[in-house]
């Protein structure tokens, strides 16, 4: 940063005043391993639609994260875990898009988050939670379980909502949904904490 740049905290707020238009680096994580996942597709469209260079990085190694065990924590971190931790350290904020499985977040996502309890990368990391579901009243159990886990790790949840992705939705409508999620995410990460606890 050169001396003429305004001081800002990592989320894009001026140290001395209101939010500035500084880029925010967002790590996007999908909680679904499904090849045709609407949550993963949403994050891909958001990444590709982001106009600011490097604004969104998509973590794509969820499937490579081994089952968590405290024993394994005493060994060198598996590559996918090390990659997730590094990506989180590098990010100003996080966007997690997850389906609901059996009334909660998918086990693969919870497993990945368990690897972060001891290492602490989520501590004070602002997070936006979204669930892409076939209808707007779905996904809230997944979001609630995810929100609880994030707060337990010290991550402020700035926003949490479901977006409806009905079967057979057009590409144009899906792109509009993605645009809306990106806008809400940017705004929430800069504005700060929403508290639904
Ligand atoms: C194993 C499994 C369990 C599910 N459990 C629920 C559930 O408890 N509540 C719900 O609303 N939807 C449930 N669903 C539906 C998914 O959450 C929903 O279709 C979601 O949009 C899938 O997201 P994806 O396309 O990103 O994989 C379940 C789907 C699967 C495969």
Beta-strand content: 15-25%
CATH architecture: 3-Layer(aba) Sandwich
Low-confidence runs: 1-21
Q: What is the global morphology? A: globular
Bound molecules: flavin mononucleotide
Count all strands and give the number: 5
Q: What profile does the largest beta sheet have?
A: 5 strands, parallel
- At CATH level 3, the topology is Rossmann fold
Order of helices and strands: EHEHHEHEHEH
Helix content: 25-40%
Radius of gyration: 17 Å
Characterization of the model:
- The protein is an alpha/beta fold and 197 residues long.
- The protein has one domain: Rossmann fold (3-Layer(aba) Sandwich).
- It has 6 helices and 5 strands.
- A 5-stranded parallel sheet has the order 2-1-3-4-5, sandwiched between helices.
- Helix 1 packs across helix 6.
- The protein is globular and about 50 Å long.
- The termini are far apart.
- The N terminus is likely disordered.
- It binds flavin mononucleotide (FMN).
- The site of flavin mononucleotide has 14 residues, from helix 1 and strand 4.
């Amino acid at each position: 940063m050169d001396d003429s740049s305004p001081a800002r905290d990592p989320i894009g707020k001026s140290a001395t005043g209101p939010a500035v238009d500084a880029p925010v680096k967002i790590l996007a994580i999908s909680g679904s391993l499904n090849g045709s996942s609407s949550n993963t597709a949403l994050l891909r469209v958001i990444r590709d639609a982001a106009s600011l260079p490097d604004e969104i990085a998509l973590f794509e190694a969820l499937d490579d994260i081994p089952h968590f065990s405290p024993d394994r924590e005493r060994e060198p971190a598996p590559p996918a875990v090390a990659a997730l931790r590094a990506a989180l350290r590098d990010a100003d904020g996080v966007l997690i898009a997850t389906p609901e499985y059996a009334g909660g977040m998918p086990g693969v996502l919870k497993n990945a988050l368990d690897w972060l309890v001891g290492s602490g990368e989520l501590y004070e990391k602002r997070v936006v939670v979204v669930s892409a579901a076939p209808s707007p009243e779905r996904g809230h159990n997944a979001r609630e379980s995810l929100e609880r886990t994030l707060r337990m790790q010290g991550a402020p949840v700035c926003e949490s909502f479901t977006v409806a992705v009905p079967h057979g939705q057009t590409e144009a409508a899906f792109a509009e949904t993605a645009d809306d999620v990106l806008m809400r995410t940017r705004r929430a990460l800069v504005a700060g904490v929403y508290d639904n606890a």
